[in-house]
Amino acid sequence: MNLEKGGRGAIERMVEAYGFKTRQALCDHLGISKSTLATRYMRDSFPAEWVIQCALETESDLAWLVTGTGRPTSSQKENTTILPRFDLVEGVLSENGAVTFDNSLLPTKVSRLFYVRHGHDNYVCSKDFTNVRDGIWLVNIDNEVSIREITRLPKNKILVSGGSKEFDCMLDDIEVTASVVLKIK
What are the Bacteriophage CI repressor C-terminal domain coordinates in residue numbering (predicted)? Predict the structure, then answer.
């Protein structure tokens, strides 16, 4: 691969990756003069630093930006989903970055997903629910967050288990935050 040449094609691919219509728009975005870009374009000089910036900002495939071969977007990006990550420690849920999941592992008909790590167990949760049904849920009981199994009982009561003791209460007595859609041990 000769990085001394190929600037013209790389610049054209950057314009496409950003979704701009003109090279002037690329200049404005990168904060460079039109003459600087024109010089690199006319001399076919490869703009490595701009290509790297473009790949990071647009998540375009670096190999495509550099050579024009392959797909404009990363195939990894198309097959993965980035979820916000939370750690559940001593009843407190704290945001801690993000995790990337292969889409084949995630349920297809749920949205608003996030990842929770609790001890040695890991959960993918969804805030997208309308009714509380039997299953595993992320709940807040007296300002303490936990993962619990909920079983519906008659008259809007629930049986809450999974902690040190199981108990029954009215559904409104606890705050149900999210459903657990995937448990990973």
Answer: 84-181
What average pLDDT does the segment 166-183 reach?
A: 97
β-bridge partners, 73:
60
> Domains plus CATH for the chain?
7-76 (1.10.260.40), 79-184 (2.10.109.10)
Contact 70, 61 (CB under 8 A): yes
- The pLDDT value given to residue 4: 63
The pLDDT confidence band at residue 76, using thresholds 50, 70 and 90, is low
**In angstroms, rounded to a whole number, what is the distance separating the alpha carbons of residues 178 and 57?**
31
Three-class SS of residue 79?
coil
Cα separation values, 39 from 7, 10, 34, 53, Å:
10, 14, 9, 19
How many whole angstroms separate alpha carbon 67 and alpha carbon 15? 15
**What CA–CA distances, in Å, run from 97 to 65, 73, 87, 179?**
28, 23, 10, 20
